[in-house]
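User: Some background: our group keeps a shared notebook of sequences we're curious about, and every so often someone picks one and asks for a predicted structure to add to the entry. Today it's my turn. The entry only has the sequence so far, pasted here. Could you supply the structure so I can complete it?
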Amino acid sequence: MSFSSPTARIEDGLFLPEGASLFTRLRVAVRALKVLEKRPDDGIAAPLFNASLDGDVFQRHCTELAKSEDGRELLTQRPSLQGRNIDLAALGRLPEGTLGYAFARYFSDNGISPFESPYEVRNEVDYLVKWYRETHDLHHVVTGYKTDSLGEMELQAFVAGNMGLRTSVLILLFAALLRPHGLPPIWKYARKLRAAYRRGRQSEKLVRLRYERFWESPVETVRQQLRIPPSTPA
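Assistant: Of course. Here's the predicted structure to add to the notebook entry:
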């Protein structure tokens, strides 16, 4: 399968032509990453970053999902967790400790808003890229990784182990070169990333879960569903 942009923003160089070469896909990914450095919630750059490098990886995940009834249902029904589909006020009224409550608190505590994107869904791969981006904030909640520089890198290491995404590896490489503020000494940082990677490898795939069905469930129940091991000090 070849991959191209369902949507684009030409002025930022965010366009992936049909049958793009590896060089072109890398160039688009780097451009998208530069946009995301300034605007982490950019609705075009974020999913295009994943599609440019990981289209084939998401295709494999679609193939695996299609082998189970729950996976086929996800790909067929294509639920959405974009901001317009979420009632944060209602989730915030759920009991403390539930996934919905923790999700609502996550946004209020960090002063951010749910993901929104005009990214067009043309097929299962486009959908899974979109679903992955929409559930990124939930990944923070269920893994327990914070939204500071270290927490974001730990989550990327977890995802690299969990889903095998090249984009996560590229983000980690950029961070190693740029050393954003807030990272611990290199030896401690490397140990934390290694622990997060192994934790991701041991867990069920993050994209397989219908999170909206677990709003009223304890966060720990969701972690058990995904078989996420407890986080151990690194």
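Suggested note for the entry: The chain is about 60% helix and 0% strand. The chain has two domains: 1-79, 83-116+135-234.
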